[in-house]
Sequence to fold (170 residues):
Amino acid sequence: MEVIPLKRNLYDRAKALGLIEITLNFQGGSDEGYLDVQINHDPNHAAVELFAELASPVNWTMRKEAEDNNSPQWQSYQAWEDACRVLRNDLESWAWSVYDYSGAGDGNDYGDDITYNLDYGSAEWQEWFMERSYGDHDLFENIIDTDPVEPEPVAAEPKLRGGQLPKEDE
Fold:
């Protein structure tokens, strides 16, 4: 699979949000292609630090207060989170438009993962696939029921007259 360069406006938006990696996880094998877009953030970016602070289980009270009061801190976090969600959707639309990925296959899962490293301006492609593997097995003998079975009554066949079925009124 050839890696397509990331569009400049997507790159610029990602960097502004503090992203360091974008991964496109394509999956196929059952005649339908799927795509999951993952984004990784720079832990030192201001919005990411705020997210970590608000998402920490230790700070649930602070998070609840910020949310309930609709504080500027909460509004900033929500705007950042919304912008990340929109970017992820735009990345998915872009990826489907530039990558020809049908997902056709024989039922075994396979995929391609493309990771764009935004700090280094590079990308890495990795192919993966699943194969059927067999584990333990048993052989079962004497699998026919030995209980006596009553024969089913056989319906009487109509008598033929000169190779013809009798008429209904006969």
Observations:
- The chain has one domain: 8-129.
